[in-house]
């Protein structure tokens, strides 16, 4: 990957995480079940954290962070049933895992790479948690 392709991949992930944060927040506010609400709030918290990390990573690599929200938000919020939406959210998280697995070997900057590895581990953990739920 060229440096421009790495930046484009980071911005694509940023837009996806921003969409995920919106979806988790909206879904948590709709959830009647306390365990589901807590799970969605934890996911939202994580998504916001990774948005911040990705914006810093783009700046570190001398790019401009995207301010767009991924189309995932519209698609996910169109699903009325919260359990079905959670399944869709988990598919989105799995997409993020695949993107990170491909991107991480291409990143030379040690700090950015370590942050992306932490994001990968957290996503794997959240996927397992949501599946168990
Ligand atoms: Fe995510």
UniProtKB/TrEMBL annotation:
InterPro entries recorded: DUF6306, Ferritin-like, Ferritin-like_SF
Transmembrane segments: none
Residue ranges of domain DUF6306 in the record: 4-131
Pfam families associated with the record: DUF6306 (PF19825)
UniProt-listed SUPFAM superfamilies: Ferritin-like (SSF47240)
Signal peptide: none
Coiled coil: none
Highest taxon of source: Bacteria
Name of the protein in question: Putative oxidoreductase
Native source species: Rubrivivax gelatinosus (strain NBRC 100245 / IL144)
């Amino acid at each position: 990957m060229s440096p421009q392709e790495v930046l484009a991949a980071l911005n694509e992930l940023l837009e996806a995480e921003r969409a995920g944060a919106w979806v988790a927040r909206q879904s948590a506010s709709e959830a009647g079940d306390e365990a589901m609400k807590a799970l969605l709030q934890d996911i939202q918290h994580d998504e916001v954290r990774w948005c911040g990390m990705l914006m810093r990573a783009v700046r570190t690599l001398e790019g401009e962070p995207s301010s767009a929200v991924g189309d995932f938000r519209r698609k996910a919020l169109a699903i009325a049933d919260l359990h079905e939406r959670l399944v869709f959210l988990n598919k989105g998280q799995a997409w993020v895992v695949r993107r990170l697995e491909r991107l991480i070997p291409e990143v030379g900057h040690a700090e950015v790479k370590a942050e992306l590895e932490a994001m990968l581990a957290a996503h794997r953990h959240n996927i397992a948690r949501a599946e168990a739920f």
